[in-house]
């Protein structure tokens, strides 16, 4: 009986780990993904609510290629209550091939979460990203603001993918004067 419980726990753990690097059934990552064009700084324009960014403004994600071929991920946002930057540093790797916009990101050792780029402007100026399920959504831009046409396009793509756009949060991207 004990061995059955151990095997069951191992199988459940493996399923959970695979599930965290999976993708929603109705969403496909972009093909012909070019990591070199995706690297650099992105500004968070909109997202679904989640605890690790709650209350932050001026949220940015910066991606840099590391010498071992993985991607350095630095997420940071301004906490106006504490009057300081909050930052998380992680590493990303491709789940399958480097030309498919599906990566896995770790901020906590061996535990990875899925990072699925499911829409990308041809000029790499705007991206829509989700995770292993649709509880997570980010609209990212190369600039702190979007044009009305970009915003309309992004919201239409998000809605087409099944996201409730009425639940999106739009963090402030006004420059912070640090004292």
Describe the structure.
The chain is of the alpha+beta class and 179 residues long. The chain has a single domain, classed as Beta Barrel (Lipocalin). It has three helices and eight strands; from the N terminus they run H-H-E-E-E-E-E-E-E-E-H. Strands 1-2-3-4-5-6-7-8 form an eight-stranded antiparallel beta barrel. The longest helix is centred in the first third of the chain and has 19 residues, at 2-20. The protein is globular. The termini are far apart.
Q: Going across the major beta sheet, what is the strand order?
A: 1-2-3-4-5-6-7-8
Q: For the record, what is the CATH homologous superfamily label? A: Calycin beta-barrel core domain
Radius of gyration: 17 Å
- Reported by name, the CATH topology is Lipocalin
Residue stretches low in confidence (pLDDT < 50, at least 5 long) are 1-19
Mean pLDDT: 88
Main beta-sheet strand count, sense and barrel state: 8 strands, antiparallel, barrel
